[in-house]
Recover the amino acids of this structure.
């Protein structure tokens, strides 16, 4: 058996409830949560969708570390047959293991994380698709961070987010960096202005928890450093 402690409650408070779950071969943490919801506590709130590491919606804090539960095997993380499951840190709790992701995506909007095509200012559709050489430096810089699926693991792992509620956070800044390097985008100046303030990239202390824990192997710390360099050169009129 696996001894599982699960945080139960809502934004007003709660506590850990204890459950015993049968141990099985190749069992994931999401399997454990599903067993509790289907066999023991039907009202347990949590999120999941794809179960194969495509959507990121099943992310939780497992034994003190934010993880995708669908890709995390119990045998790799259980300590003496014990698990402790909590909702993602640095986000409001809706109920139990489900968090409100709106503040996370609000930061993307503040960092101007939406693609703004250069050709769309007048609403006209371009006659041809833009060609971006795969070997170009900017294309490679954008490609390094483009696989982010917005799971929130980096956000939940970031000490700066915990200390500074206004901080844009690693995911939003990583998204901004991919767009700063997208030569098709027409909002580079506005985006750099958005990430240059006290709540932007300069607030990062480079602790690199985001990079260490990203399930996709993305380097948000490197993206933030890239934004810092770009803003530095912009002061001298050398926008690189």
């Amino acid at each position: 058996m696996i001894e599982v402690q699960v945080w139960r409650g809502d934004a007003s408070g709660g506590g850990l409830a204890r459950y015993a779950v049968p141990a099985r071969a190749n069992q994931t943490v999401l399997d454990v949560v599903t067993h509790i919801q289907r066999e023991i506590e039907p009202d347990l709130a949590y999120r999941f969708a794809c179960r194969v590491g495509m959507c990121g919606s099943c992310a939780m804090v497992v034994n003190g570390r934010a993880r995708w539960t669908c890709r995390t095997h119990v045998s790799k993380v259980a300590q003496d047959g014990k698990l402790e499951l909590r909702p993602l840190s640095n986000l409001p709790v809706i109920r139990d293991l489900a968090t409100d992701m709106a503040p996370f995506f609000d930061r993307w909007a503040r960092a101007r994380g939406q693609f703004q095509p250069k050709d769309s200012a007048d609403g006209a559709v371009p006659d041809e698709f833009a060609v971006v050489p795969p070997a170009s430096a900017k294309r490679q810089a954008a490609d390094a961070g483009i696989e982010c699926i917005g799971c929130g693991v980096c956000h939940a792992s970031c000490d700066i987010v915990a200390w500074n509620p206004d901080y844009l956070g690693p995911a939003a800044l990583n998204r901004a960096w991919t767009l700063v390097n997208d030569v098709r985008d027409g909002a580079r100046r506005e985006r750099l202005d958005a990430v240059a303030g006290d709540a932007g990239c300069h607030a990062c202390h480079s602790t690199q928890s985001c990079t260490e824990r990203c399930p996709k192997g993305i380097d948000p710390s490197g993206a933030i450093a890239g934004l810092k360099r770009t803003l530095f050169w912009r002061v001298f009129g050398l926008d690189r």
Notes: DSSP finds ten helices and seven strands in the chain. Residues 102-235 form a domain with the Fumarate Reductase Iron-sulfur Protein; Chain B, domain 2 fold (CATH 1.10.1060.10). The chain has a mean pLDDT of 94.
